[in-house]
UniProtKB/TrEMBL annotation:
Residues 160-340 form the OBG-type G domain. Monomer. Belongs to the TRAFAC class OBG-HflX-like GTPase superfamily. OBG GTPase family. Residues 358-438 form the OCT domain. Residues 459-469 have a biased composition (Basic and acidic residues). PROSITE patterns: G_OBG, GTP1_OBG, OBG, OCT. This is GTPase Obg. It is found in: Cytoplasm. Mg(2+) binds at residues 173, 193. It comes from Nocardia vulneris.
Length: 484
């Protein structure tokens, strides 16, 4: 049996970027071929797109994990790796994207509207792209970056013009079935309707949609019954129509008290989107009162008695019978007129043009703070230094020296000196911790050595860990300077 799912948790992971290639051209009669390693391909994105043919989030309920394709590594001969394949996920119109804390990230309304849920990692540069005057044939390449990974909450809110509100068994499903071609389940017991039903109504030249929301009861805004799960489907409705059962035999119920109880629930419910499509709160929407089941003689008399009460509130009142179809024509034209008034006051926005946002390459901002967990340590934060650390092959001395040069040119070394960093102080960037060695001449012209090596990292004039420990004990007065 098919299920209606309107809220799911989706785990998305974008593709990883491919690693760059470190290659040097070696051919006969070409002794100085130079570096020819290609760049790695970027990872694929995870994209959500509105599709008018999708009406539920059921697919994500059974398949909650989504992963895009990884980028391919670069190759020799200046061949770049293939880009990772984007993963396109189709969602219904009216899907809201939220993070784990309930913050709205995107409201997907309108066919074709897109949202990049997770961006793929950048591919690493090959040694051909890293060649410079100082490094004519780099013996290393940059690693590809990991793609974004996060958990998203998808909530579906029906996009309908008219929302039918009423107690269970008030006749909402029957009314949708006679106004449109929709065929909802209809029975004579409460809570027959377990999922919202949408119907398309044609009135003259006007076409609008009607949503039948599962029956509400007092306390629905606090979680009683089924109302709390489906009240959000009324948030986008331009007109709210109270469907009142005038033939109910339940003691203590009458049309006026039923409408008052439901009005209290609508006023208590707080939409997630406080200004969704400029509609405001549910309490501010136009109202229509539909007195149903007047084919029953007692119900017709009761409807005639309570009509002045609702008219005094300024609400249009319609006496109908979904069974005999009495009074449906005036109701249909009245609803169409209210919908046209709303559309005139809220014209559809022009389709959003695609915005191309180039990948930023010069985020120079960074900060250096004291490490709260490591005495004398520091933490360097910033998108650029953190990305550089992720791209570095730490088993390659030349790559480590290249990282030191980049950090020095960015100003990290100078900032550490200003904040009083001592030689050997632990410095954390991203998930990697270094022992800071100011003796390493980073940022100056290096002396070329063998591929994959850096002579600055092999200097023997650096202070050893044992010497730093001894100097620390001397400063604290634990030992004398001439003692071992």
């Amino acid at each position: 049996m098919s299920k209606f799912i309107d809220r799911v948790v989706l785990h998305v992971r974008a593709g990883k970027g491919g690693h760059g290639c470190a290659s040097v051209l070696r051919e006969k009669f070409m002794p100085l071929g130079g570096p020819n390693g290609g760049n790695g391909g970027h990872g694929g994105n995870v994209i959500l797109e509105v599709d008018s043919n999708v009406h539920t989030l059921l697919d994500f309920h059974f398949h909650p994990h989504a992963k895009a394709g990884n980028g391919k590594p670069g190759e020799g001969g200046n061949r770049d790796g293939k880009q990772g394949t984007d993963l396109l996920l189709k969602v219904p119109d009216g899907t809201m994207v939220l993070d784990n804390e309930g913050k709205v990230l995107m409201d997907l309304v309108g066919a074709g509207n897109r949202y990049i849920a997770a961006r793929g990692g950048r591919g690493g540069l090959g040694n051909a792209a890293l060649a410079s005057k100082a490094r004519k044939a780099p013996g290393f390449a940059l690693l590809g970056e990991d793609g974004e990974e996060c958990d998203l909450v998808l909530e579906l809110k029906s996009v309908a013009d008219v929302g039918l509100v009423g107690f269970p068994s008030a006749g909402k499903s029957s009314l949708v079935s006679v106004l449109s071609a929709a065929k909802p389940k209809i029975a004579d017991y409460p809570f027959t309707t377990l999922v919202p039903n949408l119907g398309v109504v044609l009135s003259g030249d006007t076409t609008f949609t009607v949503a039948d929301v599962p029956g509400l009861i007092p306390g629905a805004s606090e979680g009683r019954g089924l109302g709390l799960d489906f009240l959000r489907h009324l948030e986008r409705c331009a007109v709210l129509a109270h469907v009142v059962d005038c033939a109910t035999l339940e003691p203590g119920r009458d049309p006026v008290s039923d409408v008052d109880a439901l009005e209290a629930e609508l006023a208590a419910y707080k939409p997630a989107l406080s200004a969704d499509a400029d509609l405001g709160d549910l309490a501010d929407r136009p109202r229509v009162v539909i007195l149903n089941k007047i084919d029953v003689p007692d119900a017709a008399e009761l409807a005639e008695m309570v009509t002045p009460e609702f008219t005094a509130r300024g609400w249009p009142v319609f006496e109908i019978s979904a069974v005999s179809r009495e009074g449906l024509r005036p109701l249909t034209f009245a609803l169409a007129d209210l919908v046209l008034q709303y559309r005139a006051a809220h014209p559809k926005a022009a389709p959003a043009r695609p915005v191309i946002r180039p990948i930023a390459v010069n985020e120079t901002g960074f900060s250096v703070i004291a490490d709260p967990e490591e005495p004398g340590g520091f933490i360097v934060r910033g998108p650029q230094p953190e990305r550089w650390v992720k791209q570095t092959q730490f088993d390659n001395d030349e790559a480590v020296g290249y990282l030191a040069d980049r950090l020095a040119r960015l100003g990290v070394e100078d900032e550490l000196v200003k904040q009083g960093a001592e030689p050997g102080a632990p410095v954390t960037i991203g998930n990697v911790t270094f022992e800071w060695e100011p003796q390493i001449s980073a940022g100056i012209d290096m002396v070329p050595t063998g591929r994959g090596t850096d002579i600055r990292l092999e200097q023997d004039n650096r202070i050893s860990a044992a010497e730093r420990k001894h100097a620390s004990r001397v400063r604290r007065g634990l030992v004398k300077d001439d003692e071992e």
